[in-house]
Amino acid sequence: MDHITLWWIALVIAVVVTIVVAVLLSLVIGAARDIRDGAAMVWARGQQTANNTIHIALLHKTLDAVTAIKGRAVGILGEAQAIRDHAETCPGCPTCILAGLAGKKRES
């Protein structure tokens, strides 16, 4: 073999190796993009989960407020039922209730 034939063989081998390297590099770039996209999706879902867990503490505060409101509402309901029961049995109502309220104001 002469040196020109060897040069052409080397050139063909270099072109084939370059094409193989380009194909492999494009596969690596595609895999890296898939990993990047997957990581971005995991990051977004993680942030959404974190935002949702922040609200759990607020739900506990809301539950405390609702419990307090319920306690007060039960007390108001009891007072309203007592007034209704009194009004049903008292022939002098509402005058006696108003007189009782005026007496309580004087006592205070």
Query: Helix-strand pattern, N to C?
Result: HH
Supply the number of structural domains.
1
- What's the shape? rod-shaped
- Let me know the number of strands: 0
| Sheet with the most strands, sense and barrel status | none
Into which percentage range does the β-strand content fall? under 5%
Radius of gyration: 42 Å
Number of helices: 2
Class computed from helices, strands and strand pairing? mainly alpha
In percent, how helical is the residue content? Answer: over 70%
State the distance separating the first and last CA atoms.
123 Å
Give start-end ranges of low-pLDDT stretches: none
Mean pLDDT: 87
Structure summarized in a few sentences:
The chain has helices at residues 3-89, 95-107. With 108 residues, it is mostly helical.
